[in-house]
Amino acid sequence: MASYRNGRGTVKVDRAQPTGSSNLRASSSFKSKNSIVRRSNSSAGFDDSVSGRVRVAVRLRPQNAEEMVADADFADCVELQPEFKRLKLRKNNWDSDTYEFDEVLTESASQKRVYEVVAKPVVESVLDGYNGTVMAYGQTGTGKTFTLGRLGDEDTSARGIMVRAMEDILANISRDSDSVMISYLQLYMETIQDLLNPSK
Fold this sequence. Notes:
Elements: E1 2-6, E2 9-13, E3 57-59, H1 65-70, H2 74-77, E4 78-81, E5 86-90, E6 96-100, E7 103-105, H3 111-127, H4 144-149, H5 161-171, E8 185-188, E9 191-194
Parallel strand pairs: 3-7
Antiparallel strand pairs: 1-2, 4-5, 5-6, 8-9
């Protein structure tokens, strides 16, 4: 039995493993044996030593032809600073808000880069036996389907996160001892749809 301390008290973890079980890691919210984990007080507020926390990335999609014609000033209101992992939104000529993220992906970021930065660590964690979730959030037309669900039939470099994740999972499992079940659900206007069986 090992004790770990976090900001809310002491947690005891029984390290004994049942016979035949894999060697599971302690909860990812703890750094190491007998250590105290402290949240970073940096301006970004992120602590990369805590591997199990929710990470947030932002991806800016390129303007489409209609947007280029309708609003020539659009490019001036959003400024990406990927080297600082920041996005700046200009309200007007003298006022702006800055937001910090774990990753900032420009409109030229490839689908492969997005997968490797955003989803591959989650897939690797799932293959280690942990639950993982990748969620895309944004308004209609912001590129969620392109980022997640693009099949890349004509151009394999356009494949989205779901296809790439499935490829990695299938490449790293044993056909003799592992099984994979897939469900493909959509939550739209407070209605859940099974996209593999739309009648449900």
